[in-house]
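Recall the central idea of this unit: under ordinary conditions, the amino acid sequence of a chain determines the structure it adopts. In this exercise we apply that idea directly, starting from the sequence alone.
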Amino acid sequence: MSKELTLKRQLLKQLINNLNLSSTNYAILSGFDENYNFNGRDLDILCEKRDINFITNFIIELFSKNHFIVKFQKKNRLTSIFAIQRDLNINSAIQIDLIFRISLKDKIFFDNNSIFLKDDLILINNFKFAPFYFFIKNILMQISIGDFNKADSAVNSFYFYFVLSYKSKIISKLINFNFAKAEYIFNLIERKKYSETQLEINQALKFRISKILFRPLFYIKFFANAFLFYVVNYFKFANAPFIAIVGPDGCGKSFIIKKIISKNSDANGFLKFNSFHLRPNLFPTLSKLILNKNESNFQVSPRDKPGPFFLFRLFYYSLDYILGYLFIIKKILAKNFCVVFDRYFLDLYVHPARIGLSSNKFVLLIWKIIPKPQVIYAIEENPELIYNRKQELSLKEISKQYEEWRKLQKKISIIHFTKNDDQAVDNILKDIYGKFFQ
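Accordingly, the structure predicted from this sequence is:
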């Protein structure tokens, strides 16, 4: 067991012990077993709203004392706390999610490995977090369509009996009708009278639908809430890092991106990655748009001949970067997904023929309004090794592209050169986590 994992387990055990001594009610939804073992990348804790600030402050204080950098974010009913050791060792990264959904009466542990009762701890097999009514909703849907076998399998599960105490509240929320009728339906399910339950459910759903159809204010409220939800989510602050990795064909960009994602996954890092090639691809390639050619943006060999309509091409693809960021990239970043580009807009300056441009004129001027990554890593490799590895570009063209990147580095501060080796992967990954905590 690594020392980082040992330390995380010790800190989380301190957290749980402190919660047990307090008046806080909570449920561990995933990440722990009865021996306080921690193996995942995150820990999910269900708690009451009144306890959110207390638990958040205690976690921040606990990890800060042990030389961790700590950051937290609040989104609706979720508070996420991120921590990593100050040397940015990815193996020490941890995420704790505090979710408040229901009123809790006990301290409850859920685990993916075993079922047992011990003191005030209850562990349930193969439990994945969802509000209790999702579980019941699934049973109701299966009964409604006549799939009694699946419904019976769910009713026989240990989890079904755990949610019995919430049955009236769950069903009344689900189908929104007479509370006594909801209780009656749940009792039918308990006695496994599925045919009778099916008739009751379908009758109740018809009543609900007819009620909604004659409520115009319902539609106004529904669309207003949907619009407000979209606007709020659209203007969310982009939290995750945004980087690009560039260099001539064959320098190892794709390999390094795969290694970064793989190493982060192996270390159970809490950041998730989304990769793009060259541009956001909000718009199709011009050849597909105009000639209806079914070709991807990622060609087997790079284009080396310019096409017609220079200004139109430049405007079209520049617009893809601007609008693609607003409608695709920004949403991904707001969800804490790190965005990594294999090539980016400045490739149009270094190798304009790649998208059919006859020159790199105006590219640097447009760059001023293009959404920019936090850092651009130029992968440095011996041109002869690149040529021997992948003979898509001439040795002269490879050397020329490196010269162009060197010139750009003097003008654009976010460009950094790094060698193609394992150390580069570690350094880039550390840098990504460092930027997340800035």
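The two ends are 30 Å apart (CA to CA).
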